[in-house]
Amino acid sequence: MVDQKIPKATAKRLPLYYRHLNSMQQQGKQRISSKELSDAVKVDSATIRKDFSYFGELGRKGYGYDIEHLIYVFRKVLDQDEIAHVALVGVGNLGTALLNYNFIKNNNTKIEIAFDTNDDKIGTTIGGVPIYSVNDLEKELSRTNINVAILTVPMHAAEEVTERLVETGIEGILNFTPARLSVPDDVRVRHIDLSVELQSLIYFLKNEQ
């Protein structure tokens, strides 16, 4: 279906397109123009058309794009037919919120197992997800096929936990801590520092004014 390598920037936008298209389909909409999609997702229409061009001829001039077909294409590209199971380490306020939300409500990702050091939480479930002692991390992960983890531990524990995750075969880490993690080249890390993102937002708001 895809005859060339998709740029990273395009790949990052695909889930955004996919989520909005599903919303449009649920509202009974059957087709959409790049302009309409641009207004909805705040990505300029030229970029959208360029992104879509990596997947062949998806639309027709004067007609737009068939929403059902776009959803089919992006579902295959994003592997939405197969659920990706994820581990979460650190069941504090943020970790608890992620467990209660869980991603299965919106896409193909589900937090399957969680770890913490708090005895009051170990052995319980939150959002249907069982919580184990972080001391059992290697043992519990070894019996699963999980290769992605979410890190919501205190900053001082981030590096040690990351090393343990990598040793168990984790290949991708979504890092919510301020720590900049050192991992092998074959392990991918996405850093999400909420305080930095908020500060950046405030900065741009002030400077735009």
UniProtKB/TrEMBL annotation:
Domain of life of the organism encoding this protein: Bacteria
SMART domains (UniProt xref): CoA_binding (SM00881)
Annotated function: Modulates transcription in response to changes in cellular NADH/NAD(+) redox state.
Domain CoA-binding stretches: 79-180
Taxonomic classification: Bacteria, Bacillati, Bacillota, Bacilli, Bacillales
Record protein name field: Redox-sensing transcriptional repressor Rex
Pfam family for this entry, one: Put_DNA-bind_N
Keyword Lipid biosynthesis annotated: no
Keywords associated with the record: Cytoplasm, DNA-binding, NAD, Repressor, Transcription, Transcription regulation
Family membership noted in the UniProt record: Belongs to the transcriptional regulatory Rex family.
